[in-house]
From TrEMBL, chain A:
Taxonomic superkingdom: Bacteria
Gene3D superfamilies on file: 3.30.465.10, CO dehydrogenase flavoprotein, C-terminal domain, Uridine Diphospho-n-acetylenolpyruvylglucosamine Reductase, domain 2
Protein name: Carbon monoxide dehydrogenase
Species this protein is from: Microbispora corallina
Keyword terms, alphabetized: FAD, Flavoprotein, Oxidoreductase
Keyword Flavoprotein: yes
TrEMBL record, chain B:
Transmembrane segments: none
InterPro entries, alphabetized: 2Fe-2S-bd, 2Fe-2S-bd_dom_sf, 2Fe-2S_ferredoxin-like_sf, 2Fe-2S_ferredoxin-type, 2Fe2S_fd_BS, Beta-grasp_dom_sf, Diverse_Oxidoreductases
Domain 2Fe-2S ferredoxin-type intervals: 3-79
Name of the featured protein: (2Fe-2S)-binding protein
PANTHER family reported for this sequence: OXIDOREDUCTASE WITH IRON-SULFUR SUBUNIT
Coiled coil: none
Alphabetically ordered keywords of this record: 2Fe-2S, Iron, Iron-sulfur, Metal-binding, Oxidoreductase
């Protein structure tokens, strides 16, 4: 089908865009990559009165990688972030997750920030932001606020974005030295939203024992479900962890629902299996972390530079 | 409200006036008469509408024409040059990579861009590259063959 009519706005400066959003309030919607919004319009599931197309705004297609993390601007496309060697060096989970988002052609248009605001509980990037404890920067006429991930995702397809606001960037923190990450998921077809998926981050201590371990699960709740499994994993080397107990700790915290793609029970089963695979992959990556020999220096360096990440 | 926009389509500057909600796929087909770009699902799943936007493959059904005002579009009509078929088109023809041909314009655009980035792909890479294009007829085997053959033809012609 075709989209319902709307008033189209094509601002060329951020101020102009924020002005239109302020004036249109709840009737205005931002158009970024359009890879989620236009299907909704074509299917007539959304009918905003005003669309504010941000594709002409200058300076928003940025990917700034510093020792503290990666800040991604609102017009950085999935494909650009996926290919960024600088971003991968600081936070490899970005590329690991983006390879699982839709198809390459969709990733040429879709934006990372748009995916966060869209807040689909089956999407990869909200889980990544939640796992890493990142944040989203929201601008409105005359002000800005930085919203941490745990407050940003408020429900299925619901975020903390208020009428009149626009997301200008998102920040994905780096992990300390001797850390590793992984994203494992299962979808019916390549490029589909996953029936279940798990992002994991593991940090090892100087003796290669698991010092911290977290997972974020998709498609098993209204928002990405973050579970800290440090207690169930550590402090032991990955080879001697009781992985069944770790899976049980994750399953305790999720309440998947059934849909056309999978029963609730199947999703639970998948989440347990994928959590263990992702954690073991992350632990392996952590043991190969090139910064491992210098772990304490690296984590101090990244803390010290946290304030400068946006520069 | 209508918007006057300028698109460079297959190297030709085209001026057209469209409402904000005009999809790029419909602008190409209805306003510009370029019906080579096909429309299957209109929600990004089938890939039939794939065109090149400034050289990069995108879904024309998930792009508003007005958003790409001032940009360059290549459709299936623009892949051939100098009267002959492009290497990708020749490979699809040689390998019988199509039956009804409905999906073909999307495959041709996707594969043309893919081989530019990865001129010597392995099997896995080919399958991933075309994973966003659905074909109801061929069963994909000959399409996969055609992608490898296109890579070969391009290498021969370059070498
Ligand atoms: C066939 C298909 C398969 C897909 N598969 C997956 C998948 O497996 N995993 C996945 O994660 N995604 C998937 N997607 C969605 C894709 O990742 C989208 O690109 C992404 O969800 C939204 O990004 P966008 O830039 O296209 O946003 P848009 O579609 O432009 O916008 C989406 C929503 O976010 C709002 N918005 C966007 N940017 C901003 C901003 N800067 N400020 C305020 N509001 C904003 C819009 O108003 C709208 O409500 C798929 C899409 C398609 C078509
Ligand atoms: S018509 Fe555009 S992807 Fe199917
Ligand atoms: S040849 Fe008929 S859909 Fe592909």
């Amino acid at each position: 089908m075709k989209p319902p009519p709307f008033d189209y706005h094509g601002p060329v400066t951020l101020d102009e865009a924020l002005g239109v959003l302020a004036e249109t309030g709840p009737d205005g919607k931002v158009l970024a990559g359009g890879q989620s919004l236009i299907p909704l319009l074509n299917m007539r599931l959304a009918a905003p009165a005003h669309l504010v197309d941000i594709n002409r705004l200058p300076g928003l297609d940025t990917i700034e990688a510093g020792p503290g993390g990666v800040r991604v601007g609102a017009l950085a496309r999935h494909a650009a972030v996926e290919r960024s060697a600088a971003a991968a060096a600081v936070q490899p989970l970005l590329g690991q997750a983006l390879r699982l988002v839709a198809h390459p052609v969709i990733r040429n248009r879709g934006t990372v920030v748009g995916s966060l605001v869209h807040a689909d509980p089956s999407a990869e990037m909200p889980a990544v932001l939640a796992l890493l404890g990142g944040s989203v920067r929201l601008a409105r006429r005359g002000g800005e606020r930085e919203v941490p991930a745990e407050e940003f995702f408020t429900g299925p397809m619901e975020s903390a974005l208020l009428p009149g606001e626009m997301a200008v960037s998102a920040f994905f923190p780096a992990l300390p030295g001797r850390s590793g990450t992984a994203f494992r998921e299962l979808a019916r077809r390549h490029g589909d939203y996953a029936m279940a998926g798990v992002a994991a981050a593991v940090t090892l201590d100087d003796d290669f024992r698991i010092a911290a371990a977290r997972v974020a699960c998709v498609s098993v709740g209204p928002v990405p479900v973050v579970v800290d499994v440090t207690a169930a994993c550590g402090p032991r080397p990955a080879a001697s962890v009781d992985w069944d107990a770790v899976a049980a700790a994750v399953l305790d915290r999720i309440e998947p629902e059934a849909d056309i793609h999978a029963t609730a029970e199947y999703r639970r089963h998948l989440t347990g299996v994928l959590a263990v695979r992702a954690l073991r992959d992350a632990a392996r990556e952590a043991s190969e972390d090139p910064e491992a020999s210098d772990a304490s220096d690296a984590s101090e360096a990244s803390e010290a530079s946290e304030g400068e990440e946006g520069a | 409200m209508n918007h006057a926009i300028t698109l460079t389509v297959n190297g030709v500057v085209r001026e057209v006036t469209v409402p904000g909600r005009r999809l790029l796929s419909d602008c190409l087909r209805h306003d510009l008469g370029l019906t080579g770009t096909h429309v299957g699902c209109e929600h990004g799943v089938c890939g039939a509408c794939t065109v090149l936007l400034d050289g990069e493959p995108v879904r024309s059904c998930l792009t508003f024409a007005v958003t790409v005002d001032g940009h360059e579009i290549t459709t299936v009509e623009g892949l051939a040059s100098g009267g002959g078929l492009s290497p990708v088109q020749r490979a699809f023809s040689e390998c019988h990579g199509l039956q009804c041909g409905f999906c073909t314009p999307g495959f041709l655009c996707t594969v043309t861009a893919f081989l530019r980035e990865n001129p010597a792909p392995d099997h896995e890479e080919v399958v991933e590259a075309i994973s966003g294009n659905l074909c109801r007829c061929t069963g994909y085997q000959n399409i996969v063959k055609a992608v490898h053959r296109a890579a070969e033809i391009q290498a021969e012609e370059a070498g």
